[in-house]
Design goal:
Layout: E1 2-7, H1 17-21, E2 26-28, E3 34-37, E4 43-44, E5 48-49, H2 57-66, E6 72-77, E7 83-88
Antiparallel strand pairs: 1-5, 1-6, 2-3, 3-4, 6-7
The structure holds iron/sulfur cluster (SF4).
Amino acid sequence: MALKVKVDRNLCIGAASCVAVAPNTFELDSEGKAVIKKKDGTTTSDFVNYSEINDNETNIEHAAKSCPVNAIIIVEVDEQGNEVRQVWPS
Ligand code: SF4
């Protein structure tokens, strides 16, 4: 099973709980919205494969669950990268 995570910037209120829980995965950008830190040094709010993140599955899940507005979306994808189901918010 492969997982991807993204931030819905329209929902994010910059509460930064995700940054506190998983600082290796999330940071706030200049607009005060959460972005995901990739292994290559870039950041994005769009979907990122867990394999491109320097963090473990549990930390990313805890961060998503800590978001007060459920702005962190986790989906399971198949080998082709197509979404199979939404894991969080469940
Ligand atoms: S916890 Fe949620 S609202 Fe707060 S910065 Fe992270 S994604 Fe945004």
